[in-house]
Design a protein that fits this description.
By secondary structure, this protein is α+β, with helices and mostly antiparallel strands. The protein has seven helices and seven strands. The longest helix is centred in the middle third of the chain and has 21 residues, at 65-85.
Length: 224
């Protein structure tokens, strides 16, 4: 949970936001810079249609610093609670992004880091890699998760279990436990954005960015 304090156009955030495999964001990693021209404006500008529309996105009632602080605190904490309620799907969607990337590119990303490559499982990997089931399973993962809601409204496969089965040569435990969260931020439209890198030379995720909407879809995904 976090506590947001707004004073005019300045702010501080204290606390944590647990995003599962994506990472644990702390204090200054939780940024409100996207709100500098919407709700973090001088008090004399907190009026009019634009203000009313932007304030409504975050549930701001009133124009005082205290009202904005309370609303943004609740907004971020409520979003975290929703993420935690559906954390299995959130974690699986992160892994589904890897599945889509590995399917689309010929580069063997699973060999990108010696620290993550488990050659002792090569025979097991080769046995399934050239089968029709391999490609069909990847396609199912991508279809179930990419830009689909993660709020329990759609029945989905277990992306993590399937990717562990398809890629036994990849050290999933080491990779998923070493994700490096960079920034978390409410986006202009009320989505929640994040930046992460993989912690292994950026060979898997090179400062990946995404936004989650109200239904916890991964939108605007970009693995830069």
């Amino acid at each position: 949970m976090v506590q947001v304090t707004v004073k005019g156009t300045e702010y501080t955030v204290e606390g944590t936001f647990d995003f599962g495999y994506i990472g644990l964001f702390r204090d200054e990693q939780i940024e409100l810079n996207n709100l500098k021209y919407t709700v973090l404006v001088p008090e004399e500008k907190r009026r009019g249609k634009r203000w009313d529309e932007d304030a409504a996105i975050y549930g701001i009632k009133g124009t005082s610093d205290e009202a904005i602080s309370e609303a943004l605190t609740n907004y971020i904490n409520n979003f975290e609670a929703k993420v935690q309620k559906h954390i299995r799907e959130i974690n699986n969607n992160l892994i589904a992004q890897m599945a889509e990337q590995w399917q689309a590119c010929a580069t063997p990303f699973w060999e990108a880091s010696d620290e993550l490559f488990l050659p002792e499982h090569m025979a097991e990997f080769e046995a399934i890699h050239e089968t029709d089931e391999f490609e069909a399973t990847i396609s199912t993962i991508v279809c179930d998760y990419i830009e689909e809601p993660n709020n329990g409204t759609k029945e989905k496969c277990d992306a993590e279990a399937e990717m562990r089965r398809l890629f036994p040569i990849f050290d999933w435990d080491k990779f998923l436990s070493n994700m490096k969260p960079s920034a978390l931020y409410p986006a202009f439209n009320g989505n929640m954005g994040f930046d992460i890198n993989d912690g292994f030379g950026s060979d898997i995720f090179c400062e990946a960015v995404a936004e989650l909407d109200d239904e916890l879809r991964f939108l605007r995904w970009d693995n830069m």
